Amino acid sequence: MRVTLSGTEDIAIETRGSIPEEIARAIVGPGLVPEASHGFATVELLVTSIKDLKPIDQPIPGISIPGMDYKEALWRVGVIFEGQPAWFVKACDIDGTLVRISAKLMIRYPIREARITLGFDSWRATARIDIGGMSLAIDAIAMPDRPEALPPRRALVRDAGAVYEIPWQERAAPTRANAKINLQDGLAEATLGCAVAWSGEAVIHRQRTHRCGLATAVPGQSVRG
């Protein structure tokens, strides 16, 4: 059964950095190749507040399924998959119990319970992730330029030794901006196994459409990672 979930990213902050390629190889596991240059691999952190996430496939006649509001942080490592850049999800931090259960069962995310806050005021966006006494905080100040929306990458995850693809789509935010950021990081090393060389820049999105769904196994990738 195919299920597509759709919601709106009320606020989203995306920032990138790099880690040593050998650490990225250990994270993504056998069969996947990190997106790397000169010995360093790309990583990305997406922190977002999602509103009204609910199924849009196979509605039940006469029953309206309520949407879920929650906050999420995705830690992603760049890989080259079938010749194109893709994301491998290393960790998914979620602040809602029901969404954590659903994301683990349906999307096979490696879930962590977190307290996540996001704020926005006149193109100053803030985010904070708190997990077990560790935290990461972002203060993003928008710049005047408005970047073109990048096409969404395919999304991969590993569960019980097998690689799964998450159907991932984005409808570009009607409003977005490049930003300079101040990032205080006390969480990346516990998440990725090393410190991240963050770029100092981010993209802020407002009202981007977010779609995902049931993860499906990638043929030929069912090896123990």
CATH topology: Acetoacetate decarboxylase-like
Specify the CATH homologous superfamily: Acetoacetate decarboxylase-like
Strand content: over 45%
Q: Report mean pLDDT, rounded to a whole number.
A: 91
C-alpha Rg (nearest Å): 17 Å
Flag low-confidence runs: none
What's the CATH architecture name? Beta Barrel
Largest sheet: 16 strands, mixed
H/E element sequence:
EHEEEEEHEEEEEEEEHEE
Terminal CA distance reads 27 Å
Describe this structure as you would to a colleague.
The structure is a single chain. The protein is mainly beta and 225 residues long. It has one domain: Acetoacetate decarboxylase-like (Beta Barrel), CATH 2.40.400. The chain has helices spanning 21-28, 97-107, 188-192, and strands spanning 4-20, 33-34, 36-37, 40-55, 68-81, 84-94, 111-113, 115-121, 124-131, 134-142, 154-159, 162-166, 169-171, 175-185, 197-213, 216-222. Strand 11 and strand 12 (162-166) form a beta hairpin. The longest helix is centred in the middle third of the chain and has 11 residues, at 97-107.
What is the secondary structure topology, with strand pairs?
Blueprint: E1 4-20, H1 21-28, E2 33-34, E3 36-37, E4 40-55, E5 68-81, E6 84-94, H2 97-107, E7 111-113, E8 115-121, E9 124-131, E10 134-142, E11 154-159, E12 162-166, E13 169-171, E14 175-185, H3 188-192, E15 197-213, E16 216-222
Parallel strand pairs: 6-7, 6-11
Antiparallel strand pairs: 1-4, 1-15, 2-5, 3-4, 4-5, 5-6, 8-9, 9-10, 10-14, 11-12, 12-16, 13-15, 14-15
